[in-house]
Amino acid sequence: MSLFKKIFSSQKKETLDKGLEKTKSSFFSKLGKAVAGKSKVDDDVLDNLEEVLVSSDVGVDTTLKIIKRIEARVSRDKYVGTDELNTILREEIAGLLSETNTTDDIDLQIPKGKKPYVIMVVGVNGVGKTTTIGKLAYRFKNQGLKVVLGAADTFRAAAIDQLQVWADRVDVPIVKQQMGSDPASVAFDTLSSAVKQDADVVIIDTAGRLHNKVNLMNELTKVKRVMQKVVDDTPHEVLLVLDGSTGQNAFEQAKQFTKATEVTALAITKLDGTAKGGVVIGISDQFKIPVKYIGVGEGIEDLQAFNKHEFVDSFFKI
């Protein structure tokens, strides 16, 4: 059976299809114009395709990589019809995503032997960071895991309040201090509390200060160092949350945060409200960091574990 004919979880897949509708509609509208009147993939079609991919927020470097791969296929096969372009694009993009995203584990189990498993969440304000934390807590709790949240974004009172709302909604404990408190102190208290409660998962929120603040690196490093006094080798995961609807700005944020700290996974949110879903492809390829979650709706279950096959299937579904 072709991997694209794989039977996916129907409810999840329907949500993903709907969430990528704007991206898909915009992409195929542009693609249709790019090949209009052409029966063969030639230099003109490839030039037009390059423009389509760049304008769909795939990014210049990733676009050039895709074009180069298609050029190689055209050269090898001698004749490639424009009616085959959809299938070829689908295969090449799936191949790119496979190079970085090696797992398709729908439920993304917490690794054994890591208890508590500590996730530090980073990202600028407004990208959906707090919402992502709340939805992750819900997801883990539904797996039967005991979750503790840490409100270490102490520079905004709203951040602490918002995380408290999610803790109440999901019914998980939260550790917090007053606005302006030392974030590392909150992280220390959170891990200490989690160990006492025999928690399975700890999710630490961190300051969403803009990426041009010079002391961001120092602060994140301090938070890590203090957490390691409680649990060795923490955090086990540093999850960068990016707003997919910002397109190329998400690339810039990823660039700055990967300089500031070691990012091990990505969550790309708000894909349902934008035609810029191509950013998932470009960011995954350029930063070689796996996209672990995507946000495709406002519902509490609409933060999905990223599955490259499902994503490509929905992106190219006609």
UniProtKB/TrEMBL annotation:
Domain SRP54-type proteins GTP-binding: 290-303
Enzyme Commission number(s): 3.6.5.4
Topology relative to the membrane: Peripheral membrane protein
InterPro entries: AAA+_ATPase (IPR003593), P-loop_NTPase (IPR027417), Signal_recog_particl_SRP54_hlx (IPR013822), SR_rcpt_FtsY (IPR004390), SRP/SRP_N (IPR036225), SRP54_GTPase_dom (IPR000897), SRP54_N_sf (IPR042101)
Single GO molecular function: GTP binding
Class of this enzyme: hydrolase
Cell location: Cell membrane; Cytoplasm
The keyword Glycoprotein appears for this protein: no
Binding site for GTP: 123-130, 205-209, 269-272
Entry keywords, A to Z: Cell membrane, Cytoplasm, GTP-binding, Hydrolase, Membrane, Nucleotide-binding, Receptor
Function: Involved in targeting and insertion of nascent membrane proteins into the cytoplasmic membrane. Acts as a receptor for the complex formed by the signal recognition particle (SRP) and the ribosome-nascent chain (RNC).
Similarity annotation: Belongs to the GTP-binding SRP family. FtsY subfamily.
UniProt subunit comment: Part of the signal recognition particle protein translocation system, which is composed of SRP and FtsY.
Protein name: Signal recognition particle receptor FtsY
